[in-house]
Write a structure and sequence with these properties.
Layout (H helix, E strand, L loop, with lengths): L3 H18 L4 H5 L9 H23 L12 H14 L25 H17 L2 H6 L2 E4 L2 E7 H24 L2
Antiparallel strand pairs: 1-2
Helix pairs in contact: 1-5, 1-7, 3-5, 3-7, 4-7
């Protein structure tokens, strides 16, 4: 399966983050308008944290150490859950959702080179997606790294990753507007 739609969008997401926040100081990147809102740096950290959990899933699949939960054998569940999760992470941010604890960003101030780390992370993400073409062709089903009972196709996972990045870009822009 051609992976270009995801890698192209990841490039766009990366460019958007760097263009919008690349000139901010470390203090601005770590600034929070209130205790309930994540800073720009925390949004970036959260994206990298979530994406890294998918790296581990792919690694386990490649090592033949991954077992799809029994619920993944039912296409009605995988299709429904994939669409449901994708809809929940759309960039419009009409509905706030709480993340799983495993994906919470660091609560302290993050490194001043968080955007450079993000840029490097995005390159690794693109490579992982490009190398997953054979898995996409096989229609591999995975579970959410945060909950084994949430299952979807790997293709849906990549759609979710891209949309989720866009969602947090919008969230970070809201924080930036209040600096």
């Amino acid at each position: 399966m051609d992976t270009q739609k995801w890698t192209t969008q990841i490039d766009r997401n990366t460019e958007a983050f760097l263009r919008e926040f690349g000139q901010l100081t470390p203090a601005q990147l770590n600034s929070k308008p209130n205790a309930q809102t994540w800073s720009i740096a925390q949004n970036v950290d959260h994206i990298m944290t979530i994406n890294a959990t998918y790296f581990e899933v792919i690694k386990q699949i490649r090592a033949k150490q991954y077992s799809t939960p029994w619920i993944g054998n039912f296409s009605m569940f995988t299709n429904f859950l994939g669409k449901f999760i994708l809809k929940s992470v759309q960039p419009d941010r009409k509905n706030k959702i709480k993340t799983f604890p495993v994906w919470e960003p660091a609560s302290s101030e993050l490194d001043e080179d968080i955007l450079e780390q993000f840029k490097q992370h995005q390159e690794e993400l693109k490579k992982m997606i490009e190398r997953s073409s054979d898995l996409l062709d096989k229609g591999v089903i995975i579970s959410s790294p945060a909950n084994r009972m949430i299952v979807y196709k790997l293709e849906a996972a990549f759609d979710i990753i891209v949309a989720h990045e866009q969602r947090h870009f919008e969230q970070a822009k809201e924080v930036s507007a209040n600096l």
